[in-house]
Design a protein that fits this description.
By secondary structure, the protein is α/β, with parallel strands linked by helices. The chain folds into two domains: 133 residues, Aspartate Aminotransferase, domain 1; 238 residues, Type I PLP-dependent aspartate aminotransferase-like (Major domain) (Aspartate Aminotransferase, domain 2), CATH 3.40.640. The protein is 39% helix and 15% strand. The strands form three sheets. The chain has a seven-stranded mixed beta sheet, sandwiched between helices. The protein has a four-stranded antiparallel beta sheet with strand order 9-10-13-12. Helix 4 packs across helix 9. The chain is globular, with a radius of gyration of 21 Å.
């Protein structure tokens, strides 16, 4: 079996196939809440900075440093230090071709085939896919009814082959924001056992809490345990330019550099130029984007009574996501395909975020609301409230 055969098809790729050959009526256009990626262009100033670089900077078209441009590493180190009230240097920051690559580089630097990584479920499917392809066992840590992982439950899963614990906050797919105390407890657990804590904060710019969501960067030895992942894709609408980042120790970045040099040699220059311009010039604009996302979160919570009256439950909500439970007998995977055909709604079933055979995913859906405003959310809830599954479909 090849490494790619060891894992499943990407849910995003698979769900797009459900749209093939489907025509949506003009009075019921598709509502796509399947993917957490902004579809609008970056602000004009950022686009202009990238265009100017493409026309006038020789180095925008050349190989660059494997760990990224110095100006971007320095700007991000300063931003992290300011936001979290800690101390992060340029040497502790690396730039990657998207946050998925940041995760892949972290695992490559930590794990050998047969090692284990503890990861809460529901999980972010690309994390599971990379662990599968790396021959690393994803050890599921089931969250509680509040969608929160339990450090004590994680401690019981640690074995001699465990190399890391993964957390995503604000969470994908559940949307919940992990309290600072939980994040600190996992950090302390990882440090006590000599493990890495991989903390993916791709959506931190849309956290509802003001200020730092945790205090880990205030620990003088944070980099001995913490591997912090970040993405510029969501903050500055740079999804197609693939710019992510890692904050960790210099020794860990030295190992990751080998992986990154072999895979992509360096991150794309124009995306990096756009990201550093964003860090320097778009903080007020980003605050407005955060306000809009938080308003959509509020719209989900305020309008969910339409679905609650029909037996649905809201399990988690925040950043770009709402995680919900449906009241029907059929599996969410079956219902997801019916919703495309009968309600012009595309959203991912919970089965795509759970281990194979885990029945709880059959009752759940993820709603990614980055590209639906209040009116779109209201229309979505109206369609879901009116939906009645076809009885001739099985589980």
């Amino acid at each position: 079996m090849s490494s790619t055969e060891a894992t499943f098809c990407s849910p995003i790729v698979e769900s797009r196939r459900w749209l093939e050959g489907v025509t949506f009526p003009s009075n019921r256009p598709l509502i796509n809440v399947s993917q957490a990626a902004p579809t609008a262009m970056p602000p004009e100033g950022l686009r202009q900075a990238m265009a100017d670089a493409a026309l006038n900077q020789v180095d925008a078209h050349l190989y660059g440093a494997v760990l990224g441009r110095d100006d971007l590493r320095d700007a991000l180190a300063s931003q992290i230090s300011s936001h979290y009230g800690g101390s992060v240097s340029k040497a502790q920051v690396g730039i990657t071709s998207g946050c998925n690559q940041a995760f892949a580089a972290s695992i490559a630097s930590l794990c050998a085939e047969g090692d284990e990584v503890i990861i809460p479920v529901p999980w972010y499917f690309n994390h599971k896919m990379w662990l599968d392809m790396s021959g690393v066992a994803a050890v599921p840590l089931h969250v509680g009814p509040d969608m929160m992982p339990d450090p004590d439950a994680a401690a019981a899963l640690i074995t001699p082959r465990t190399r890391a614990i993964v957390l995503v906050t604000p969470n994908n797919p559940c949307g919940v924001e992990y309290p600072a105390g939980i994040v600190r407890a996992f950090f302390d657990l990882a440090r006590a056992h000599g493990l890495a804590l991989i903390l993916d904060e791709t959506y931190r710019d849309f956290d509802s809490r003001d200020g730092a969501p945790h205090d880990l960067f205030k620990d003088v030895a944070w980099d001995k345990t913490l591997i912090h992942l970040y993405s510029f894709s969501k903050a500055y609408r740079l999804t197609g330019h693939r710019v992510g980042a890692i904050a960790s120790s210099e020794s860990k970045l030295f190992e990751m550099e080998k992986f990154l040099d072999t895979l992509t040699i360096c991150p794309a220059q124009l995306g990096q130029i756009g990201a550093v311009w964003g860090l320097r010039n778009l903080q007020d604009w980003l605050a407005g984007e955060r306000h809009e996302i938080l308003d959509r979160k509020a719209a989900i919570e305020e309008g969910f009574h339409k679905l609650a009256d029909k037996g649905w439950s809201l399990l988690g909500c925040g950043a770009y996501f709402a995680y919900v439970e449906h009241p029907f007998e059929q599996s969410s995977e079956t219902l997801a395909k019916q919703l495309v055909q009968e309600s012009s709604v595309l959203m991912l079933p919970g089965t795509m975020f759970m281990p194979s055979g885990d029945t709880s995913g059959a009752r759940q859906f993820r709603i990614a609301f980055a590209n639906v405003d209040r009116a779109g959310i209201e229309a979505l809830f109206d369609r879901l409230a009116a939906f009645q599954p076809s009885q001739n479909h099985g589980q």
